[in-house]
Amino acid sequence: MTAVTTPARPNPPSPNSTVSAHGNPATSGGTLSGSFFDPYTSTFLLAGPVKLHPRIQQAMAAPSLNHRGEYFHEIVHEIKELLPLVFGRPGHQVVLTGSGTAGLEAMVSGLVKRNEKVVVVSNGHFGDRMEKLVERFGQLVPVRGTWGKPVSLELIKASIEQNSPKAVAMVYNETSVGFTNPLETVGALARKSGALFLVDAISALPGLPTPSDAAGVDAVVVGSQKGLAAPPGLAMVHLSDRAKGALAPQTFYNDLAEHVKSLEKDDTPYTPAVPLFLALREALLLLKEEGVDRRQARTRRLAEATRASVKAMGLSLFPEEEFASDTVTAIRYPAGVEDSAFRAALRDRHNLIVSGGQGQAKGQIFRIGHMGFSSFGEVLTGIAAVEREMHRMGKVPALGPGVSTFERYLP
Q1: Phi first, then psi: what are they for 191, rounded to 5°?
Q2: Which strands form 234-239's sheet, in the order they lie side by side?
Q3: Domain around 347
Q4: Which end of the chain has fewer CB atoms surrounding its CB within 10 Å, N or C?
Q5: Any idea what the Cα angle at residue 147 is, between residues 146 and 152, rounded to 5°?
């Protein structure tokens, strides 16, 4: 019989080696004063996925389960009972095995027919992705704005009035540029026209305020790996009564009507990602223990501290500050700073991982995520590393303003 061995944790590179993008010793010479990237101990401040709480990691280590057995049905029932914490209300909710994009596809394909118009409000990378999704299943009516700025409400209103769309779709929180869209105002326009209001809240909930009833949201999608701080690979969808009644799915696996029917029976229509469901239950329990209001308040405070520190260093935010996101901060690069080199320096010298830009903003910005279980200590470590590297590059005149500003926000 051949023995099965567990892969060993990678050895750290020697003090005289550089580090590749995968955390392994590179073949070229050089030294980083003994620093190296270690995924086990890194300060992980991506805009998603985010770091996992140890309880969530432990939940995924459970043995194989019968996904049609009573024990797993009890887990699904508990998830169903806890989901209103995320969406802020009870209703028709499902959990799909698939990333947030799978949830968006299920939403659009289930509510829009080929000959029906959808006004898509876009001012970032994920708004552009929503456009591509709508083009697959319906007739796209784009209303585009400048990235990092709100789209003109007059343009949105005019497009809705001229096209009488089946639906209006937008991204609540544009992670790509650290921007939060005015959901309530756009939702009121959609509701007045009678259109369904479809929302990508993948990076918004539960870190940002839950949409009020006045927003008139009919369908909203949340991803597991953002503010909820579960692993990537699950999408949660909430439907209003109106949206549930309008379902006419064009897909099989992501048929929301089948998923709603199954969840009512504490089941899933098809084989789910069982370990991810176990992780989701633990993430929801942790959210319940902390409290949604406290989670949002902590996220907001981290965002305020990060934005203030960035400005204290003399750096600039990418979005208009009035609309800056509380879950991720997007920062413009000063002239002469190259994106991949800067983020590699953070990784290799400081064991820090941050996000780059996407789409039009690629190479122009870097992004610090502060959602989920991000702590003040971790984000402070990130601010200190950014300040130090910008100082090394001659873009920050002195060390200290960023860190000392952040420290004023410590609890």
Answers
A1: -65, -40
A2: 92-97, 234-239, 219-223, 196-200, 167-171, 117-122, 139-144
A3: 291-407
A4: N
A5: 40
Contact 159/119 with Cβ under 8 angstroms?
yes
Last residue of a domain, one of 235, 269, 290: 290
Number of domains in the chain: 2
Q: Could you tell me the CA-to-CA distances from 230 to 50, 52, 224, 336, 372 in Å, in that order? A: 8, 6, 5, 37, 9
Tell me the CATH number at 242: 3.40.640.10
Half-sphere exposure of 21 (CA within 13 A, CB side): 4
CATH number of the domain encompassing residue 313? 3.90.1150.10
3-state secondary structure 15-54: CCCCECCCCCECCCCCCCCCCCCCCCCCEECCCCCCCCCH
Q: How far apart are CA 363 and CA 358, in angstroms?
A: 8
Do 306 and 258 reside in the same domain of the chain?
no
| DSSP-based helix, strand, coil % in the chain, nearest 5 | 40, 15, 45
Claim to verify: residue 257 and residue 350 sit in the same structural domain: no
> How many degrees, rounded to 5, is the angle at CA 286 between CA 282 and CA 289?
140
Q: What is the mean pLDDT of residues 1-12?
A: 42
First vs last C-alpha separation in the chain: 57
Residue 1 included in any domain: no
The residue behind tokens 């949206």 is 243
Residues 103 and 235: beta-carbon distance below 8 Å: yes
Same domain assignment for residues 76 and 140: yes
* Same domain assignment for residues 286 and 303: no
Q: What is the pLDDT of residues 197-231, one digit of tens each?
A: 999 999 999 999 999 998 999 999 999 999 999 99
Say yes or no: 107 and 243 in one domain: yes
Predicted TM-score (pTM) of this structure = 0.90
Do 106 and 246 sit in the same domain of this protein? yes
Query: Residue 20 falls within a domain, yes or no?
Result: no
At a CB cut-off of 8 Å and minimum separation 6, what does 174 contact? Answer: 123, 124, 125, 126, 127, 147, 180, 181, 325
Joined together, the tokens standing for residue 50 give 């985010």
330 and 206, same structural domain?
no
Strand 43-44 and strand 352-353: the pairing is parallel
pLDDT in tens, 111-132: 999 999 999 999 999 999 999 9
User: Are 325 and 308 within 8 A, CB to CB?
Assistant: no
